[in-house]
Structure formats: C-alpha cells, structure tokens
Write a structure and sequence with these properties.
This protein is α/β, with parallel strands linked by helices. It folds into 2 domains: 305 residues, ABC transporter type 1, transmembrane domain (ABC transporter transmembrane region fold); 229 residues, 3-Layer(aba) Sandwich (Rossmann fold), CATH 3.40.50. It is 63% helix and 11% strand. The strands form 2 sheets. It has a 6-stranded mixed sheet with strand order 6-7-8-3-9-10. Helix 2 runs antiparallel to helix 4.
Length: 559
C-alpha cells in the first residue's frame, strides 16, 4: 500500500517537472546534447591508458605514445568546451524555469481567496515564494547527468565484463549495500528538509511582522520581548538545520565508504591475479577507470535520493500552494459591463471560522440608486457585508443577488470593476501619488485623474508637495497623514467611475470640511449610483434614503 502511494506521488512529481521542462525545452535540449558528448568523451581514456601500459611502454613505441597523448589532450580540450557550453545552457534553462515558476506562484497567490490570507502571514508566504530556489537542482545539469549515468553504467558494465567477468561480479555485489543505505536515510532527510523550510518560513513571518509594527514595538518598549521570541524561533531553525546536516553528512560518508570498500576488494583480488600473472597491470588500470564509471554513476544514483530530498520537499510545498483552490474558478461566470446597483441578501448565513456566526439568516434589500447608511457597534457585521458583496468571502448558506443575478453566477473580476470602496484602513503603494490614484483604473486619462483629485479634496495638498503628483508616498503611504491618505483613496474610488460605492468608515480621518465634501459627492456626483455608507455611529448625511442599524449580525432597526 505504502509502496503504491509512493509510486503515485513520484509519478505526479515527475509529471509536474516534465511540464515545467517542456515550457523551456530549447536550452534544456541543447545543454543535454553537449552533456551527452561530454559523457561519451570520458569513455576512451581508461582504455588508452591500458594501451600505454601494456603495449607502448614494453614496446618502446614513441609514435603510438605521441598519438595517444595527442588524443588525450584533444579529448580534454573538447571536454572543456562541451563542459562550458553545457553549463551555460543549463544556467539559462535553470533561471528561465525558476523565474517562470516564481511568476506563476505570485500570480497564483494573488488569485487565492481572502480567507487563505486570513490564515497566513505575509512574511511566511514571502518565504514560501523564496523556497522556489530549492527547485533549482531539478533544472540543473545534475538531473541530466543522473539520466546519463544509467548509460555510463551500462557501457562501463559491458567493458568491465570484457576485461574480467569475475571482478565485475564482485563489483556488482557491492551495489545492494548502496541501495539499502540510501533507502534508510532518504525518508528522514525529506522530513527534515520540510521541517527546515517550515521553520524558516516562521522566522521570516516573525521578522516581517516585527518590522512592519516597529512603531508599536517601540511605543510599548517591547524590543527585548520581540528579540526573545525571534531567538526562540531561530534556535528551533538552527537545531533542524544541524539535524539535517548531520544526517546528510552521515549518509554521504556511508555511501563513500561502501564505494571505497568495493574498490579495496577489487584491488586485493586483481593484485593477486597480477602477482600470479593472469592479469596485466594495464588491464587493472583500465578496469579501475571503468569501475569508477560504474561506481560513480551508481553512487550518484544512490545519493541522488538523498541529495534531492530538499528539492522534493520544495516541490511538495510549491505544489501545495499551486493546487490550493483559487478565485479563478469563480471568475468564469457572466461578465457585467454595467450595474443598476440593486442588491439583495437572502437568508445569508456566514461565519469566518465556521463556529461563531456573523449572520444567521440575514435579509436585506437595497434598491438601485439608493443611499443607505449602515450603522452599528464594532463587530456587528457592517464591514462583513461589504466583503460578501465583493465576493471576498462566500456565505455558507443563502444568496447574494445583484441586479437579479446571484454573484456566484457572475465573473468576480468584472463585478469588482463596477464597485468602488473607500475604506478606513487605506493602503497606498510605495509609488507616486499619481500612480496610487490611477491604481483603480489604469486606463483613466490625465484629466480624469486630476478631476478626481479635485473632487476628493486631495488636489490642494498634492500641489503643495515637493514633486506634486510625482511624489513617492513611501511604504503604505507613511509620508502622508491619515487624512491625506483618505483623500487619495477617495480620489482612487472616484476615478474608477463605478456603479456601486461603499464608504467603509471613510470619514474616520477627515475633518468637517472633508465630510461635507463627501456629502456633496453623494448628493450630486453619485445621485444615480447605489451608495452604502458604513459607520459605527449615525451620521447626519444629506441625501440618505435609509438608515439600517445592525447589532450582532441582525438588523434591529430601519429608518
């Protein structure tokens, strides 16, 4: 049963690798051809040395000696050229594949649902992306050398039998020991490699979190506490790395010892035959040369099961992320070009953790173009409404209907294109003010961007910045105040020209003048659009059609 499962897992991994190789097959094929030539060039050398010892030296044949030396020099020069070319093409192949994998993995991560990121920290995921480097071994010349080692084994075995079949049988008797040693260590090394990667990801997550929240760490004087927590994780990682290093070293040395013992046994037996006169010194030199090409590939194949364990662990972890269910499965539905903005929640049940419910049978209808203030205390479910409407989470039961369509039937990307959100927690990229406004609608014109900045009230402070719209706002917009970031977020929503607008605590950092500006936008600019204003307190806004009060996920009052 276990053997069948291992074969199935190996087959799946092999298929994954073959698919990746086929995408960048040109440098792989060229590099492999040069590697084959390189391997073939190594075969004549031991036999030529046999000829030198058994024929040239006893016969004092300088002409043949010169020819053999020239041939050996030519072989070495050719090997140098083929080695360089094979390494070059495999270097190109390796980087193309790894870059492609990272691109695909990053694209995949961004397509995963928000619930996935609720369970994982960004530092942890960043380290998981970096683990792709562990796949490098699969796309190096080592992989092809392993395949070629089988051919080398066969050629060498044929030549060895021709030289001395008894010695060859003795040499083959050592091979089962190599298999047993490899089998013993490979499973342990794979588990240790997985553990090292996981602990490394945890360290990365802890460092990223501490650096992101460094202002909080300093305010509460928690530098030593954070350092202590990180030290504990680093010590765990150190121990895991030490264990893996010890196991790898032991396994490698054991394989080397077994190979050396085989060589010593051959030396003793062939030495006895040379003394008796039944075996020549040249034949022994040739036999030893080809024996190295028999044991070399054998040890390489045996140790590959150990060497490749970290790479197999990296492949397992890469496939784990790539096979996670993403949002693209929900993006194949009906595309929407425009929305009227009619929204309905029908008997919606939702819980973030599957245990504590946020909504239990929520029913809510909002007409197209209606302006609704949704209020209630923290934890009442206000922001969850927005996330469900955007398809960031799926309800466990019930339906969310927009313009008569269940959002499960709609393309999520097209739906989100028609909804703009201005949130209390504004995130700005470490880019220019201009590009942050343009982020919601890359095809917007210069005029539309500037008009959005004027309507949001952002234009006034942007023009006072040293580089105006070309000012870089810093990581998460740290060079700007909370109110300035909020105005840029509002401009970003305006330039999108969406059909449904959601203001999620959007006035948290705004002054009275800015609040009045939002009121004018709602009554004038957004008069034909559906607007949802989410606030923990009632807000006396002109133009509001209805006020809905939530508490513990239940509508307790409508005005």
């Amino acid at each position: 049963m276990n053997s069948s499962r291992e074969i199935s897992q190996f087959r799946n991994k092999a298929i994954s690798l073959i698919v990746l190789i086929r995408l960048y097959k040109k440098p792989f094929i060229i590099g492999s051809l040069f590697l084959i030539f390189l391997s073939l060039l190594s075969l004549p050398t031991p036999y030529l040395l046999k000829v030198v010892v058994d024929r040239v030296l006893p016969g004092r044949d300088m002409g043949l000696l010169n020819l053999i030396i020239l041939t050996l020099v030519g072989i070495q020069v050719a090997r140098l050229g083929f080695s360089y070319l094979s390494n070059y093409y495999f270097g190109v192949f390796n980087q193309e594949v790894l870059t492609g994998i990272k691109k695909d993995l990053f694209r995949r991560l961004l397509r995963l649902p928000l619930s996935f990121f609720d369970r994982q920290q960004s530092g942890y995921l960043l380290c998981r992306v970096d683990e792709v480097e562990g796949l490098s071994l699969f796309f190096s010349s080592t992989t092809v050398r392993l395949a070629l080692s089988v051919l080398e084994f066969i050629f060498s075995l044929v030549i060895l039998f021709a030289l001395n079949w008894k010695l060859t049988l003795i040499a083959l008797g050592i091979l089962p020991l190599l298999y047993i040693a490899t089998k013993h260590y490979s499973g342990r090394l794979r588990r240790l490699s997985w553990e090292v990667m996981e602990k490394g990801a945890m360290v990365s997550s802890r460092v990223q979190e501490a650096l992101t929240g460094v202002d909080v760490v300093k305010v509460f004087g928690a530098e030593e506490r954070e350092t202590s927590r990180l030290h504990g994780l680093l010590d765990d990682l150190k121990q895991a790395n030490i264990q893996r290093t010890v196991k790898t070293t032991l396994s490698s040395e054991l394989l080397g010892l077994i190979g050396a013992l085989g060589g010593y046994i051959i030396l003793w037996y062939s030495g006895w035959d040379i003394i008796r006169g039944s075996f020549t010194l040249g034949s022994y030199i040739a036999f030893s040369g080809y024996l190295a090409r028999l044991y070399g590939p054998t040890q390489m194949l045996a140790s590959a099961g150990l060497i490749f364990q970290p790479a197999f662990s990296a492949l397992d972890r890469y496939r784990e992320l790539m096979e996670a269910a993403g949002e693209e499965e929900k993006d194949k539905g009906r595309r929407v070009e425009r929305l009227r903005g009619e929204i309905e929640f029908r008997e919606v049940y939702f819980s973030y953790d599957g245990q504590k419910p946020v909504f239990e049978g929520l029913n809510l209808r909002i007409s197209a173009g209606e302006k609704v203030l949704i209020t209630g205390p923290n934890g009442s479910g206000k922001s969850t409404l927005m996330k469900l409407l955007l398809g960031l989470y799926r309800p466990q039961r019930g339906e969310i209907i927009i313009d008569g369509y269940n959002i499960e039937e709609l393309s999520l990307s097209s739906l989100r294109e028609r909804i703009s959100v201005v949130s209390q927690n504004v995130f700005l990229f470490n880019d220019t003010v201009w590009n942050n406004i343009l982020y919601s609608c890359p095809e917007a014109t210069d005029t539309e961007v500037r008009q959005a900045a004027v309507l949001s009230g952002a234009a006034k402070f942007i023009e006072k910045l040293e580089q105006g719209y070309n000012t870089v706002v810093g990581e998460t917009g740290k060079k700007l105040s909370g109110g300035e970031k909020q105005k840029i977020a509002l401009a970003r929503a305006l330039v999108k020209d969406a059909d449904i607008l959601i203001f999620d605590e959007a006035t948290a950092h705004l002054d009275k003048e800015s609040e009045a500006r939002i009121e004018r936008l709602i009554t004038d600019n957004f008069k034909d659009k559906t607007c949802l204003i989410i606030s923990h307190k009632k807000w006396d806004i002109l133009g509001i059609d209805r006020i809905i009060e939530l508490e513990f996920g239940t509508i307790i009052k409508q005005e």
